[in-house]
Amino acid sequence: MSTPPESTGCGRWELRQEAGVHWLETPVGSGVARFTFAVTDGGGRLNLATAPEGFEAATEARLSMVRAMNLEPNRFRLVRQVHGGDLRETEGLLPDRAGELLPARDPAIEADGLVTRHPDEILMVLVADCLPLALAGEDGLALLHLGWRGLATGMLEKAVAAVRASEAVIGPCIGPCCYEVGPEVAEALGVEQSASGTVDLGGITAERLVAAGVDSVERAERCTCCEVGTFHSFRREGAAAGRQAALLSR
């Protein structure tokens, strides 16, 4: 298996490694965005989802992550992701309703985006080709698990407005080299496919962020499908794919 490369090609991005766990880290407004890798020291795999290994394995993987990053599990907020366009506020949600990091389990609330206005909360989404998007603005932080349906239903614009976002970070996701879609998807997104039938999910997202008034947009420029061993990829591995995480906190 491959190991994470030493450089990301952008000065704002830092490759971090602690206790065998690797992740990319970059500032976004008043917050910090982190994006984990699938690979660990010694060629192991870090899968932060409950499938396919199960809840016990996911709990151990998440413990490894929080220890490496020196974070507190009870600060995390996550939801059950359904590849939709619902955005939820953490305001008023108790930890057992917003979803807990540990022990690993399926959260009760379904959504694909979270907004927080509390400085002590850590937002987390799981991805394996979909685009993780971190937003920061005057009214808080937002973290999205963004696929074509979320883009088509306007979740991005809702999140930008919710926090009055001025800065955005696009994490590793499937690239235009690999994201082949049907004509109905391109039509829903209002874009044209390339000659090979692909669309640029990251590029579309960046354009919409600028159109929504976001001043600063950073992209990781990493393809989760191409980088075998470094990232989990549903397009490449199907139901056997694990998940990496995107985290956003102050």
Topology, please?
Layout lengths: L13 E5 L2 E8 L2 E10 L14 H15 L6 E2 L9 E3 L5 H4 L14 E4 L5 E6 L3 E7 L2 E7 L1 H5 L2 H9 L1 E6 L12 H7 L11 H11 L4 E4 L14 H4 L6 E6 L1
Parallel strand pairs: 4-7, 5-6, 10-11
Antiparallel strand pairs: 1-2, 2-3, 3-12, 6-9, 7-12, 8-9, 8-10
Q: What does this protein look like?
A:
The structure is a single chain. This protein has 250 residues and is an alpha+beta fold. The protein has one domain (14-249): CNF1/YfiH-like putative cysteine hydrolases (4-Layer Sandwich), CATH 3.60.140. It is built from 7 helices and 12 strands. The strands form 2 sheets. Strands 1-2-3-12-7-4 form a 6-stranded mixed sheet, with helices on one face. A 6-stranded mixed sheet has the order 5-6-9-8-10-11. Strand 2 and strand 3 form a beta hairpin. The radius of gyration is 17 Å and the shape is globular. Residues 1-10 have low confidence and may be disordered.
Summarize it.
The chain is an alpha+beta fold and 250 residues long.
Name the CATH superfamily classification. Answer: CNF1/YfiH-like putative cysteine hydrolases
Strand order of the largest sheet: 1-2-3-12-7-4
Low-confidence stretches: 1-10
Number of helices: 7
Number of domains: 1
Proportion of beta-strand residues: 25-35%
How would you describe the shape?
A: globular
Q: Output the CATH class name.
A: Alpha Beta
CATH topology: CNF1/YfiH-like putative cysteine hydrolases
Q: Termini, distance in Å?
A: 33 Å
Descriptive key words:
single chain; 250 residues; CNF1/YfiH-like putative cysteine hydrolases; six-stranded mixed beta sheet
